[in-house]
Automatic annotation (TrEMBL):
Catalyzed chemical reaction(s): a quinone + NADH + 5 H(+)(in) = a quinol + NAD(+) + 4 H(+)(out)
UniProt name for this protein: NADH-quinone oxidoreductase subunit B
Localization: Cell membrane
Organism of this sequence: Pedobacter helvus
Gene Ontology molecular functions: NADH dehydrogenase (quinone) (non-electrogenic) activity
Family named by the database record: Belongs to the complex I 20 kDa subunit family.
Annotated ranges, domain NADH:ubiquinone oxidoreductase-like 20kDa subunit: 44-151
Gene that encodes it: nuoB
Amino acid sequence: MSEIKIVEAPPGIEGNGFFATSLDKAIGLARSHSLWPLPFATSCCGIEFMATMGSHYDFGRFGSERLSFSPRQADVLMVMGTIAKKMGPVLKQVYLQMAEPRWVMAVGACASSGGIFDTYSVLQGIDEIIPVDVYVPGCPPRPEAILDGFQRIQDLVKNESGRRRHSPEYKELLASYGVQ
C-alpha cells in the first residue's frame, strides 16, 4: 500500500503510463513540508535555535517558518535546554495540549540527558515524561545540527503510516508515559 506503482493509462489518455501512490504517501509528503514547530526553550540551546531561524540558516526553507507558540496549533515540540523537575509537569501539559499527530525533538544535551547538571532538581532527559522522536546532540548544538534533527523529523513524518498512531504498540507507548 505504501509503494509507488506505475499503472497503465486509462483508455483515451495518451502516454505510456502514469504514477499512482497511496494516500498515506501524499499526506505524508504534504505534512512533512508544512510542520509548525513549538519552541520550548529554557536556556542556551534556545539561543542557538534563534540563530537557526535567522537568514543565514533560514529554517523557513523547510516549510517551518511559522513558529507556533500555542500547543493547539503546533505539530513539533522542540524542547531546548535544561528542564527542572518542577518544569516537567508543565512540559507534559504542553505536550498533551498538542493535537495528534505530534512529534518531539530533544535539542541539546540538557533536554536529552540532563547535560552537566546531574542534580536532584534537573530532569535527566525529557524522555522520562514524554516520548521523544529525535535527539539532537551538542552543548549547545550548532544550527546545522538543529536543521539535521528537523530533517529527521520530516523523514519520520513523510514515511509514517496513518495507521501507526492507532496501533496497539503506539497506544502502549503512550500509556507507559501516562498519556491517553
